[in-house]
Queue: 2 jobs
Job 1
Amino acid sequence: MRIELAYFAWVRERMGTPGETVELPPAIADVAALLGWLAARDERGAATFADPHRIRAAIDGALAGPDAPLAGVREVALFPPVTGG
Amino acid sequence: MRIELAYFAWVRERMGTPGETVELPPAIADVAALLGWLAARDERGAATFADPHRIRAAIDGALAGPDAPLAGVREVALFPPVTGG
Amino acid sequence: MIRVFVQAAPIDVGAEIDLHDAGGHGASASFIGRVRGDAGLTELFLEHHPAMTEAGLASLAHAAADRWKLGALTLIHRVGSMTPGETIVLVLASSRHRAEALAACEYLIDRLKTDVMLWKRESFADGRIAWVEEREDDRDRAARWE
Amino acid sequence: MIRVFVQAAPIDVGAEIDLHDAGGHGASASFIGRVRGDAGLTELFLEHHPAMTEAGLASLAHAAADRWKLGALTLIHRVGSMTPGETIVLVLASSRHRAEALAACEYLIDRLKTDVMLWKRESFADGRIAWVEEREDDRDRAARWE
C-alpha cells in the first residue's frame, strides 16, 4: 500500500524532510503500526518515533488516533502536539 | 444646618437646577429625612422624590444609604441608579 | 502603566491601542462599547458626576491591577453627547498571559456598568427623550466579582 | 460577517479593527497575542499544516457564530518567522451585547491554542533553538468549553 507521509515541526526536522512516499507492507494497518514501522526502518525513524506518545497524526486532513486504519488513505501527517495561538 | 445639594440626570431635570444650597431644620438628620423634607417642600420636590426607593445619594463624594447622618456634611448628591458603561 | 480618562472628546481607538501597546505585552484584551442606533436613536447623552466618576474609574483600575498581573491598563469613558456608532467606553488590559488580560477586561467592563457615576439619556427620531433605567442583568454581572 | 485569515504577512491591527468595526456593533471584544521577548528570544517561527490550519480556524469561527449572536468575527493567525513585539494572533468578536462578544473572544483564543495545527519554534540570542512543548493549562482552558 502506497501512502504519502507529511512531517511537521520537530518530526520534520528529525526526519530531515517535509514528507515522503512510502510503500507499506500489508501488515501495517493502522497509525500505531505505521509509527512502529518507521521507528524500526532506520536511525532517523528510531530517533523520531521512539516515543509514540509524543506523536499526533492526521489522516487526509482529520485528526486520527493510534488505532485509525490506513486502508484507502492518501496522506498521513505526523507531528508533535500543537502549540499554536 | 446649611448643605449643598447636587442633582443629576432626571433628578436634576425635575428639580429644574443642577443644585442648590439649603438650610435644613435640625430634625432633618439623615438622607431619608432629607428626601422627605424635599418631597414636602414644594411641587417639584414632590414630583422628584415621591418614590425615595428610586433615589440614590452620595455624601461628599461617597455613596451613602438612607440612614447616613448629615451632621458635618458639605454636599449631598441625589440621583437615580447609575446606567453608565 | 495605568491610564484613566473621562472625556467629552471622541475616543480614538487606534491611537489609544498604539499608546497602550507601546510596551509590547504578550497578551492584550480589549472591549469597545459603542452607541447603538436602535429604535431610531439619534443621540445618547451621558451625564456624570465629575469628581466621583474619575475617582470611581481610578479605583476600579487599581482594583483590577491588584487582582491580576497587568502590564498596562487603559480605561477611557466618554461623557456628553454622542451619536450612533461612536465609542462610549474603551477598556484595554495587557498582561504576559492571556487569562489575566481577558479576566481583567471582563471585570472592568462589568463593574463599569454599576460602579461609575454615569447616567444615560436617549433621544429618538420621533422626539422622545428618556433616561435609561437600571438593568438588573448589569447588577448581576457586576456582583459575580464580589 | 466572518473573516478568517492565515498569513505570513504582519497583522495590521488598526486596519483590521477599522474593517471589522465598519458595521458599528454595540460591543466589540478583542484579543491580541504578541511575541514575547523573554529569556533572550530573538525569533519565533510558527509552522503550520496549511489545509488543516485554515479549515480549523474556519470551523472554530463557525462554532463561535453558532454559539453566540455575533455581528462580526475576525480571526487572523500569522505563520512563519516573527520577532518580539509582533502580533501572532488577532481575535475580534462583535455583538449587540457585551457578554456575547466577551465570551466568544475568550472561547476563540482558548480553542485556538489547542485546535489549530500550528507549532512554535523559538530561537534565542545564545544560539539555542527549541520547539515549544504543549502546555497543560492550555488544554485545561480549552476543555472548559466542551
Job 2
Amino acid sequence: MAVHLLYFAWVREAIGRDGETIDLPGKVDTVAALVRWLAARGGGYAEALAEPARLRCAVDQSFASLATPIAGAREIALFPPVTGG
Amino acid sequence: MAVHLLYFAWVREAIGRDGETIDLPGKVDTVAALVRWLAARGGGYAEALAEPARLRCAVDQSFASLATPIAGAREIALFPPVTGG
Amino acid sequence: MSARISVQEADFDVASELARLEALGGGGVASFTGVVRGGDGLEALRLEAYPGMTQAALEEIAAEAQRRWPLVGLTLIHRHGTLPVGERIVLVGAASRHRMAALEACAFLIDWTKTRAPLWKQELFAGGSTRWVEPRPEDDVAAAAWDSSAEHGRP
Amino acid sequence: MSARISVQEADFDVASELARLEALGGGGVASFTGVVRGGDGLEALRLEAYPGMTQAALEEIAAEAQRRWPLVGLTLIHRHGTLPVGERIVLVGAASRHRMAALEACAFLIDWTKTRAPLWKQELFAGGSTRWVEPRPEDDVAAAAWDSSAEHGRP
C-alpha cells in the first residue's frame, strides 16, 4: 500500500528529507514495525530512528502510539516530542 | 484635637459631604467611638452610620478596624466595604 | 523588577502596556483586563477612589506579588470616574520567566485589588437610578485563599 | 463562543486581538504572550509546524477549553518560522464573565499547546550552531495535571 511519510525536527534533519511516499509491505502493520523497517535502511534512517522511545508519531494527522495499527493509513508522521508554546 | 474626616461611597452620599475637619472630644478615642459620636448628630450621620458592622475605615490612610485607637490621628476615613477591580 | 502602578481617570493603552512587559525579556507576559459589562439597563459604572490612599494600597498589593513570584515586571492600572459599558476598568499584567508565575500573579493582583484597595463602584442605570455595588462573598473567599497559600502557587 | 485559532508566520497584533475579546461583552479578558527570550548567545528560535495538523490540534485544545470553562471568546495564535529574540511566539486569550475562568483557561491553553500541539523549537545561536529544544518534564506535569482536575479549577 502507498503511504505518505512525514518527518519533523531532528528526525527530518537526520533522514535528510521532510517526507516521502512509499509502498509498505503488508507485514509492516504498526508504527513500531514501520520504524524498524525504515531504520533497517541504515544511514540517516538508522540514526534518526535508533531509539523508538524518543519518537512520537501521528497517523492521518492524529497523535498515535508506536503500537497503533497503520493498515489503511494515508499519512504517517514521525517526530520528536513536541516543544511548542 | 482637630482631625480630618473623609466619607466615601454611600457614606458620603448619606452624610451629604465628602469630608470635614472637626475637633474631637478626648473621650472619642477609637473609630467605633467616633462612629457613635457622629451618629448622635442625627440626620444623614445617623442614617449613614446606623450599622457600624457595614462600615470599614482607614486611619491616616491605612486600613483599620472599628477598635483602632485614633489618638493623634490626622485623617480618618469611613466607607463601605471596597468593590473595585 | 519594573513595576508600573497607576490610578487614573484616562483609559490606558493595553498594547503599549503589554509591550513594556514583553520588552523586559522574561519571555512570558500574562494580563487581565476588566471591562464594564452591560445588562439590566446598566449604562455606566462610577468608580470612586480615595485620593492619596488608593495608589499606595495598589503599590502594597504589587509589592506583595513581587515577594510571592519571580517577576521581572508588573503593571496595575485602575481607572476611576464614570465608565460607560464597554470601557476598560482595570489592567493587571505580570512578566516572568515562568508562565505560571505570570498567570498566578495576575490572579492574585486582581483578587487583592478587588478586596484590598479603597475603590467603590456605583451602577448608573438608564432612567437615572443608581446602586452601590455590594461586595461579593466569593471575592473575599478568593482573596483570603491567597493568605493561606504557600509562598507560591494557586491556593 | 467566538474562537479564533491561527498558525501563522506573521506576527499578530496583541491590541486588536484583545480588543476583539473585550468587545464580546464578558467583562473579563485574560491573556498570555510567549516571547523569544535571549541568553547564552541565542539569536533566534525556529518554530516548525506540521502543516494541516497543527491548526487542527490547536482547535481541539480550544474546544476542550470551551468545554471546561464558561468562555464567551477565546484566541490561540501560534507562529512558526524563524523568530529572533524578542519576537512573539504565541498568544492565548480568553474572555469570560468570571475572571478565574478567563485566567485558568489561559493557563490550560498554554499548558496543552506546549505538550499537545505538533510544534518543534530549534535554537539558533550566534556562530551558527543549532540545538533542538528538549521537552521539559515540568511541562508534561503541568499539562497532565489538567487531566486529573475536575471540570473546573486549577489542579
